[in-house]
Protein backbone atom coordinates (compact mmCIF):
# COMPACT_ATOMS: atom_id res chain seq x y z
CA UNK A 1 0.00 0.00 0.00
CA UNK A 2 1.25 3.48 -0.91
CA UNK A 3 1.69 5.90 1.99
CA UNK A 4 -0.03 9.31 2.11
CA UNK A 5 3.16 11.33 1.53
CA UNK A 6 3.89 9.39 -1.67
CA UNK A 7 0.32 10.00 -2.86
CA UNK A 8 0.65 13.69 -2.01
CA UNK A 9 3.80 13.94 -4.12
CA UNK A 10 2.09 12.13 -7.00
CA UNK A 11 -0.93 14.43 -7.02
CA UNK A 12 1.20 17.54 -6.50
CA UNK A 13 3.11 16.49 -9.63
CA UNK A 14 -0.21 16.62 -11.50
CA UNK A 15 -0.88 20.10 -10.07
CA UNK A 16 2.63 21.19 -11.07
CA UNK A 17 2.00 19.92 -14.62
CA UNK A 18 -1.07 22.18 -14.67
CA UNK A 19 1.05 25.09 -13.44
CA UNK A 20 3.59 24.42 -16.19
CA UNK A 21 0.79 24.39 -18.77
CA UNK A 22 -0.36 27.78 -17.48
CA UNK A 23 3.21 29.10 -17.74
CA UNK A 24 3.51 27.75 -21.28
CA UNK A 25 0.29 29.60 -22.18
CA UNK A 26 1.75 32.86 -20.87
CA UNK A 27 -0.28 32.79 -17.66
CA UNK A 28 0.51 32.73 -13.97
CA UNK A 29 1.87 29.25 -13.17
CA UNK A 30 -0.43 28.04 -10.40
CA UNK A 31 -1.94 24.60 -10.82
CA UNK A 32 -4.44 22.58 -8.85
CA UNK A 33 -6.12 19.20 -8.74
CA UNK A 34 -9.01 17.89 -6.68
CA UNK A 35 -8.72 14.25 -5.62
CA UNK A 36 -11.44 11.97 -4.26
CA UNK A 37 -10.84 8.32 -3.38
CA UNK A 38 -7.47 8.34 -5.13
CA UNK A 39 -8.83 9.77 -8.41
CA UNK A 40 -8.46 13.26 -9.86
CA UNK A 41 -11.98 14.62 -10.40
CA UNK A 42 -10.94 18.15 -11.37
CA UNK A 43 -7.79 19.82 -12.59
CA UNK A 44 -6.98 23.35 -13.58
CA UNK A 45 -4.52 26.20 -13.71
CA UNK A 46 -4.66 29.93 -13.32
CA UNK A 47 -6.24 31.39 -16.49
CA UNK A 48 -6.63 34.96 -15.33
CA UNK A 49 -4.31 36.25 -18.04
CA UNK A 50 -5.36 33.87 -20.81
CA UNK A 51 -9.10 34.51 -20.41
CA UNK A 52 -9.08 37.97 -18.84
CA UNK A 53 -11.00 36.47 -15.92
CA UNK A 54 -10.06 37.87 -12.49
CA UNK A 55 -11.45 34.90 -10.54
CA UNK A 56 -10.18 31.99 -12.61
CA UNK A 57 -7.38 30.99 -10.25
CA UNK A 58 -5.94 27.47 -10.44
CA UNK A 59 -8.17 26.17 -7.66
CA UNK A 60 -11.28 27.80 -9.13
CA UNK A 61 -10.48 26.29 -12.54
CA UNK A 62 -10.15 22.85 -10.91
CA UNK A 63 -13.52 23.28 -9.17
CA UNK A 64 -15.12 24.37 -12.43
CA UNK A 65 -13.64 21.40 -14.28
CA UNK A 66 -14.79 19.00 -11.55
CA UNK A 67 -18.34 20.03 -12.41
CA UNK A 68 -21.29 19.63 -10.10
CA UNK A 69 -20.54 17.22 -7.30
CA UNK A 70 -22.58 16.15 -4.31
CA UNK A 71 -21.51 17.67 -0.99
CA UNK A 72 -20.57 14.17 0.22
CA UNK A 73 -18.01 13.92 -2.58
CA UNK A 74 -16.29 17.19 -1.68
CA UNK A 75 -16.26 16.20 2.01
CA UNK A 76 -13.93 13.31 1.00
CA UNK A 77 -11.71 15.42 -1.25
CA UNK A 78 -8.19 16.70 -1.03
CA UNK A 79 -7.34 19.90 -2.88
CA UNK A 80 -3.77 20.18 -4.18
CA UNK A 81 -2.40 23.58 -5.14
CA UNK A 82 1.11 24.56 -6.16
CA UNK A 83 0.77 27.86 -4.25
CA UNK A 84 -1.00 28.50 -0.96
CA UNK A 85 -4.64 29.41 -1.68
CA UNK A 86 -5.77 33.03 -1.55
CA UNK A 87 -8.79 33.98 0.54
CA UNK A 88 -11.18 33.43 -2.43
CA UNK A 89 -9.90 29.92 -3.10
CA UNK A 90 -9.66 29.06 0.59
CA UNK A 91 -13.23 30.31 1.05
CA UNK A 92 -14.48 28.16 -1.81
CA UNK A 93 -12.78 25.16 -0.22
CA UNK A 94 -14.56 25.97 3.05
CA UNK A 95 -17.88 26.38 1.24
CA UNK A 96 -17.57 22.86 -0.17
CA UNK A 97 -16.17 21.49 3.11
CA UNK A 98 -12.91 20.23 1.64
CA UNK A 99 -11.25 18.61 4.68
CA UNK A 100 -7.64 18.56 3.44
CA UNK A 101 -5.50 20.92 1.39
CA UNK A 102 -1.97 20.13 0.24
CA UNK A 103 0.20 23.08 -0.80
CA UNK A 104 3.31 22.99 -2.98
CA UNK A 105 4.85 26.15 -1.56
CA UNK A 106 3.86 29.13 0.55
CA UNK A 107 6.90 31.40 0.33
CA UNK A 108 6.06 33.44 -2.77
CA UNK A 109 3.27 35.42 -1.07
CA UNK A 110 3.83 35.76 2.66
CA UNK A 111 0.24 36.87 3.32
CA UNK A 112 -1.17 33.58 2.09
CA UNK A 113 -0.07 31.83 5.27
CA UNK A 114 -2.75 33.90 6.99
CA UNK A 115 -5.32 32.05 4.88
CA UNK A 116 -3.75 28.78 5.92
CA UNK A 117 -4.01 29.62 9.63
CA UNK A 118 -6.98 31.97 10.02
CA UNK A 119 -9.30 30.58 7.36
CA UNK A 120 -8.40 26.93 7.00
CA UNK A 121 -6.73 25.49 10.10
CA UNK A 122 -8.97 27.56 12.37
CA UNK A 123 -11.96 25.77 10.82
CA UNK A 124 -10.49 22.30 11.13
CA UNK A 125 -9.03 21.87 7.65
CA UNK A 126 -5.88 19.77 7.56
CA UNK A 127 -3.23 21.85 5.76
CA UNK A 128 -0.06 20.16 4.52
CA UNK A 129 2.77 22.26 3.08
CA UNK A 130 5.16 20.18 0.99
CA UNK A 131 7.59 23.09 0.44
CA UNK A 132 8.55 21.87 -3.01
CA UNK A 133 11.43 23.73 -4.67
CA UNK A 134 9.95 23.03 -8.15
CA UNK A 135 6.77 24.94 -7.32
CA UNK A 136 8.72 27.88 -5.93
CA UNK A 137 11.20 27.94 -8.84
CA UNK A 138 8.43 28.05 -11.46
CA UNK A 139 6.73 30.97 -9.67
CA UNK A 140 10.00 32.87 -9.34
CA UNK A 141 10.78 32.32 -13.03
CA UNK A 142 7.38 33.75 -13.96
CA UNK A 143 7.77 36.74 -11.62
CA UNK A 144 11.22 37.50 -13.06
CA UNK A 145 9.93 37.31 -16.65
CA UNK A 146 6.58 39.08 -16.06
CA UNK A 147 6.75 41.28 -12.95
CA UNK A 148 4.04 43.60 -14.27
CA UNK A 149 1.53 40.74 -14.57
CA UNK A 150 2.43 39.34 -11.16
CA UNK A 151 2.16 42.76 -9.51
CA UNK A 152 -1.20 43.37 -11.22
CA UNK A 153 -2.56 40.05 -9.94
CA UNK A 154 -1.52 40.56 -6.33
CA UNK A 155 -2.40 44.24 -6.25
CA UNK A 156 0.97 45.99 -5.97
Tell me about this structure:
The chain is α/β, with parallel strands linked by helices and 156 residues long. The chain has eight helices and five strands, in the order αββαααβαβαβαα. It has helices spanning 4-24, 48-51, 58-66, 71-74, 87-95, 112-120, 133-145, 147-154; strands spanning 31-36, 39-45, 77-83, 100-105, 126-129. It has a five-stranded mixed sheet with strand order 2-1-3-4-5. The longest helix has 21 residues, at 4-24. It starts with a helix and ends with a helix. The mean pLDDT is 94.
The fraction of residues in strands falls at 15-25%
Helix content: 40-55%
Distance between the termini: 46 Å
SS field, number of helical segments: 8
Strand order of the largest sheet: 2-1-3-4-5
Count all strands and give the number.
5
Properties at a glance:
156 residues, alpha/beta, 5-stranded mixed beta sheet, 5 strands, globular
Summarize the topology.
Elements: H1 4-24, E1 31-36, E2 39-45, H2 48-51, H3 58-66, H4 71-74, E3 77-83, H5 87-95, E4 100-105, H6 112-120, E5 126-129, H7 133-145, H8 147-154
Parallel strand pairs: 3-4, 4-5
Antiparallel strand pairs: 1-2, 1-3
Summarize the structure.
With 156 residues, this protein is of the alpha/beta class. The protein has 8 helices and 5 strands; from the N terminus they run H-E-E-H-H-H-E-H-E-H-E-H-H.
Amino acid sequence: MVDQHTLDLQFMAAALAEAQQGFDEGGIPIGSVIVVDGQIIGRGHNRRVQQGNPILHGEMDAFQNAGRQRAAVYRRATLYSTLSPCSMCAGTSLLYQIPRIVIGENHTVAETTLCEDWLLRARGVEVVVLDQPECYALMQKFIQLHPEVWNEDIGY
